Amino acid sequence: MSAPTTARGILSPDRTEQREEIIRMLTKAYWMEIETVMSYVANSINPDGVRAQEIIESLHEDVDEELGHARQFGERIKELYGVVPGSMDFQAEQSYLQPPEHQTDMVHVIKGVIEAETGAIDHYNAIIEATDGVDPVTNDMVIEILHDEEQHRRLFEGYLREYQAEGAI
Ligand SMILES: [Fe+2]
Ligand SMILES: [Fe+2]
Known about the structure:
Layout (H helix, E strand, L loop, with lengths): L15 H28 L9 H27 L26 H26 L4 H30 L4
Helix pairs in contact: 1-2, 1-3, 2-4, 3-4
Bound molecules: fe (ii) ion (2 copies).
């Protein structure tokens, strides 16, 4: 669909190139969220043991939040005249969030979550930089999502500290 000729800002026809670059970045963000949903679903089910319960609950809640992020990225892609991709375009990248050898290995899961959140934080900072003064709506939306990811990472850093303090790793 082509942009209406009267639109100002990022929707204006002479901003097509910038818009396409933002759509490309939002699509990557969309896939990151979808993969995180898959990884967090698995890692909120697999772990065994008393100590795993806190992590299980935390990841269970995060699944809904990350799915919400995926939806927000998808909606914004559409608003910018892009198309949300189909599943055949999906390429997995989270090698670090595969199930551990032993399902009581919570350190593996915690470190994997921290790595996923760090990747999201890096990419969302890049989107915020790219949209600053260019696309204030995407900029605003991604700042809010970035806040969620920073909270997630901080929470799991706390879990890791606890394990480290107890000499479990
Ligand atoms: Fe997210
Ligand atoms: Fe997150």
